[in-house]
Amino acid sequence: MSDSKERPSSKLADDVKFHPGRTAWRKLDYRIIPVITMFYLLSFLDRTNVGNARIAGLQTDLKMSNKQYTIALTVTYVTYVASELPSNLVLKRIGPNILLPSVMILWGLVATLQGIVTSYHGLLVCRFFIGLFEGAVPGIVLYLSMFYPRRRLQTRIAAFFSAASLSGAFSGILAFGIIHLNGKRGHSSWSWIFLIEGTITIACGLLGYFLLPRSPADAWFLNEQEKSHVAETLVVDGVMSKELEADGFRWSEVAKSFMSPQVVLVGIIYFMNGVALYGLAYFTPSIVASLGFTAAAAQLMTVPPFVVSAVVTLAAGLISDYYKCRGVVIIVGSLICVVGFGLFLGSSNHHVQYGSLFLSIPGTYLIQPALAAWNANNSAPYIRRATTMAIGFIMTNSGGILATWLFGDLSPAPRYTKATKTLLIFSVLMGVLSGLNIWYLSVRNRQKEKVKEDPGARQLGDESPSFKYSL
């Protein structure tokens, strides 16, 4: 038998090996995902490590009441919410490769300065600016949507949302080690938490200038074939438009996002999940400490539930992308939350209550990337998608405001009864609203199938007959 019949020609083998579709996505995964994952991990860490600092003596040393501590957390979310939409709208114009590292350096600087505050009012000022600068962080999801088609998006979003879970674990481990620095160079243990973790953020922000490309066309690690493949895929997928003008800024596109039924439904889910997400992010150390464990033990015991959450979140993203089932993943996550919060509410056994965190934390965290992907998948053109994604994160962080009051002032430890009942009800409603949105999007897709496709209708964005909504 001739050699040509036994194996493909070398040219064909090279074409298979170096197909631009395979190599482009792999290169993007290797070059972009680790960087933005670190960005998101540190943003979540710097926003929520105040919970670890609290049980390390922050509240006592600054002579703050529970209400004052809650106000300090609330201030963070007020400025965060206020800056989210503007930062998303200017992200593309300024360039994500400039904006994201810049705000990271700024919030890292402020996070570091928290370590030298000596009064409640000093902490308030720091929390104000941390929220203001971190309001650009949701732009990471928008940035990702500029590189990946809709079917590949949630796995990538899940990768850095897993970082949010890991930040809870990482924060606990770091805090456990750092509290042994108490008194070193005149700083208490809670001061060292801010000083060390804030400095790490500044260093990573500086690296970001050299690691993030502005767009696929500017990705120096892609060859011309790979850049063309990515661009063509994004156009065919409806993520980007062929005409640059279609993706340009128009206030009408901003308004359409606020009037879109699916955006409203997902926004409500975002709010309810945000209450759970930030309630657990900020107060898990306090919850565990209230079960009778020492401050040092509580720091370490927050780690396992968040590690499990990181694994579950990534697995949910892979399943959602493979089966294209955003809404179903959210429903499953809400059911896991129902069981977790139900166990915490119904049992007085501290071991059962601690064990419930292995359900409520993963259930809550796996919902967030599915919501982000759902919003990104179902909004076009670019400005409408930027607005839609900002709305989602605005609602999430508005939920964070409610969370700080539920756990901080309205629902005392150790039972957190009002807070747990609220989260239980919200978990049920998240599942119901997700089912309603699946039904609505299915109806819209069937309506589109009956409309004859018009090439000019692509300018309508997600309202085009050729644009099929993700379920």
Automatic annotation (TrEMBL):
MF (Gene Ontology): transmembrane transporter activity
Primary location group: membrane
Region described as Disordered: spans on this chain: 452-471
Keyword terms of this UniProt record: Membrane, Transmembrane, Transmembrane helix, Transport
Entries under SUPFAM superfamilies matching the protein: MFS general substrate transporter
Top-level division of the source organism's lineage: Eukaryota
Domain named Major facilitator superfamily (MFS) profile: residues: 32-446
Parts of the chain that traverse the membrane: 69-91, 98-116, 122-145, 157-179, 191-212, 263-284, 296-320, 327-346, 352-374, 386-408, 423-443
Cellular localization per UniProt: Membrane
GO cellular component: membrane
Span of the signal peptide: none
Alphabetized InterPro entries for the sequence: MFS, MFS_dom, MFS_trans_sf
UniProt topology in membrane: Multi-pass membrane protein
PANTHER family, per database record: PERMEASE-RELATED, TRANSPORTER, PUTATIVE (AFU_ORTHOLOGUE AFUA_6G00710)-RELATED
Protein name in the entry: Major facilitator superfamily domain-containing protein
